[in-house]
Design brief:
Radius of gyration: 17 Å
CATH superfamily of the largest domain: lambda repressor-like DNA-binding domains
Structural class: mainly alpha
Number of strands: 0
Order of helices and strands: HHHHHH
Oligomer: single chain
Number of helices: 6
Distance between the termini: 40 Å
Shape: globular
CATH class of the largest domain: Mainly Alpha
Helix content: 55-70%
Number of domains: 2
Amino acid sequence: MNKSRQVVIRNLQRIIEEKGLNQAQLAKELKVSKGFISMLFNGKRNFSQNVLEQLAEVLDVRISDLTKHQSINSSEYVIHVRGKATSGIAKEAISDWIIEMNDFTRLSNSFQEEC
């Protein structure tokens, strides 16, 4: 599964949880089958532009809320990684954290420079 699809799935899961919905309710709102929603969440179906537009409308969010990579938004979080990551999942997770921390640091630094 590609990273873009993973980002949309994570954002969609977060948004429906925040809205107090589940996959069955989302399917009903979209007028699609529960199986279709399940395939989206499992990465077996792609998120077409049309599907993203429908999701955004039903969930009352922008498409960018579904597609943007969420980053850490507080300087209170510091991640220390020691030792080696042996599994592919652990390596990928650590790599994602490092990217997020680097992005957060760059944004934080540029914001501080502007102020």
